[in-house]
Amino acid sequence: MSNKQTHETNESQNGMVRGLKNRHVQLIAIAGTIGTGLFLGAGRSIALTGPSIIFVYIITGFFMFLMMRAIGEMLYYDPDQHTFINFISKYLSPGWGHFSLLSYWLSLVFIGMADITAVGTYVQYWFPTWPSWLIQIVFLIILSSVNLIAVKFFGETEFWFAMIKIVAILALIATAIFMILTGFQTPTGHASLANITRHFSFFPNGKLKFLMGFQMVFFAYQAIEFVGITTAETVNPRKVLPKAIKDIPVRIIVFYVGSLISIMAIVPWYDLPVDKSPFVMVFQLLGIKWAAALINFVVLTSSASALNSVLYSTGRHLYQIASEYPVSLMDKLKFNTLSRQGVPSRAIIGSGFIIGISALISVIPGISDAFSLIAASSSGVYIAIYVLTMLAHWNYRKSADFLADGFLMPYYQVLSPITMAFFALVFISLFLQQSTYIGAIGASIWIIVFGIYCNQKFKRKAVEL
Fold first, then answer.
1. Alpha carbon distance 81, 387 (integer Å)
2. What is the pLDDT of residue 100?
3. CB 290 within 8 A of CB 279
4. Are 270 and 263 in contact (CB under 8 A)?
């Protein structure tokens, strides 16, 4: 059997079942591209830079797409890797690989904690007397169960979660087209594309605010790499993965740029409230009185989708950590084992248990503040892992493994350094805002201290061998 044919079987070489079909992966890719921030925070991002926020989304999306091309090229070469982090170990160094694997898992855990907290808040919109910690635990148990059954069941759940987000965005765009064509009267005037260019200024709040917009948009795209973690469990990944990645620019144009243009065409950008969801505003203008409840449902499913994906990903990464770096506790808990369905069930349960701790943390004020600081630091660490991934891809291109007829990243010798420079710029911009600079300092300390520790640890191991 040829190398390419082996990846079309129902089981990957690492024992996991290839249960994700093309439609699952394509919708998972869309779900990873569209963040909850689009539905709730679009008004805040528009207020920051005005209509030029569209360019911020396009520029940031372009570099995220280039990173996905780098990840896609390496996964095309070896689709049996169930995390792109493994390439950092292989093509950079075991020390940086260990740093990235543990740091990425911890970052995902904190994202999961934020997602589960958001779920509790959104459910309380309808049931304010229900305790948030109980809502969080119930959702965590339900979504953990989804992940434990079979990867196909996870894929089906994500498919419908993503579909809800897609329908909401397309409904917004369709509403905007209708309002523009009919000259719909709003409290601020008529719906028109002219609302976007009226009083236009590229830097309405200064160049610094424009630069700060990149970090906000960057984290809206966070988790775009998630589709790269599904490769080992995807049927015919060498056909499915390239399509999912190639379509990212179209998704960015339709979902992000389309949404922003629609919002600003209906309500002039300078009249948009910062503290209200533009989606709610637009649907209320159309006469939908239950618009707020509708968008609350969309963001609830969006957060549940993100939590579902985090449980999937943290389970695979904890399984990888336990497999590559066995310690006595990991051996006892058997995090490095697969269930009969080919799912790392113990690792999923272990990750879910740690994420569930946030339900208790949220009711302890002092610990809650410390948690917020650590969670903010993890965002900066995420950027470092993206840079390490690009460096790993650079070394892969120069290695004997390089697959010349693979899914090649175009002009990598020029575009890879530019992409890494962009990530560095985003990291630097974290120091410019009061709400993010403490997290940026924490991230810097973690990267330096833990990075040195991991590399020294593996250097000592190499000397001992």
1. 19
2. 95
3. no
4. no
